[in-house]
Amino acid sequence: MTDKLNKKQIEDLLPHREPMLLVDELINIKKLKSATAIVNVRKDSFFVQGHFPNEPVMPGVLIVEAFGQAAAALTAAGIDKSTYENKLVFLMTIEKARFRNPVVPDCKLELNIEAIRSHGRVWKYKGEAYVQGKKNGRCTMGCNYCG
Fold it and tell me: Whole-angstrom Cα distance, residue 124 to residue 140?
């Protein structure tokens, strides 16, 4: 088990593809416990042109989606492939989502994700978002591995 995954390795774990694969890298992986996801928010990111043309901002729902992708990758990287192969991860709950500042293009969004509970196919995670070392948001979510 490596403590770092690149985008190609994340693609091997998740069904998401461009443009919806938001996580570029997963680092500081502690098997089935925690990791940090890197999302490079760029000027050419698919959401920038329409949200908003003169004041581009990464939508909060996409930040939550990135949290979910990070959580799914963390879990898939730590369990046997037969457990998650041919299964999809669905968000069940989103709790306590808070955003402090807009996430704008040309920044590195860091998402610290922690698995706080699992029961069969249902997992609960908490996450905190940072840009340039400043806390930018947080949420707690529940996910279900279905297949």
Answer: 7
Residue the block writes with tokens 């709790």: 95
Contact 17, 4 (CB under 8 A): no
HSE of 81, CA atoms in CB hemisphere, 13 A: 3
Residues 103 and 131: their CA atoms lie apart, in Å, by: 8
51 is catalytic: yes
Instruction: Give the pLDDT band (50/70/90) at residue 121.
Output: confident
Q: Among 21, 31, 32, 51, which one carries the catalytic annotation?
A: 51
Task: State which CATH number among 3.40.50.300, 3.20.20.70, 3.10.129.10, 3.40.50.970 fits the domain covering 4-146.
Answer: 3.10.129.10
- Whether the full predicted model's pTM is greater than 0.90, yes or no, is yes
